[in-house]
Design brief:
Helix content is 75%, strand content 0%. The protein has 3 helices and no strands.
Length: 87
């Protein structure tokens, strides 16, 4: 198995993590989040009483930025570790 380019792996996971949270932010903005969360919780046999805050663009952008950065670090770290273990 070949080496994994750390920057590419980081960018791929950054796009994945950030993209998922971008989609989630749209779902919250559209008001569909409660239905989706309730469905997922029911699938896991979980019943909770919770409230969702109103959509806030600043919070959404911060969420997307943080998860994108985390995705990059995780992807980069995985690639570096992979390359070290497969020398």
């Amino acid at each position: 198995m070949g080496n994994i380019h750390p920057n590419r792996a980081g960018l791929i996971l950054a796009l994945l993590f950030g993209g998922v949270h971008l989609i989630w932010s749209f779902i919250v903005a559209l008001g569909w989040a409660r239905v989706i969360i309730d469905f997922i919780l029911r699938l896991h046999f979980i019943k909770l009483n919770y409230t969702l805050d109103t959509f806030n663009l600043g919070n959404a952008l911060f969420l997307i930025a943080v998860t994108t950065a985390i995705g990059y670090v995780v992807g980069w770290g995985f690639a570096v570790l992979w390359n070290q273990l497969h020398r």
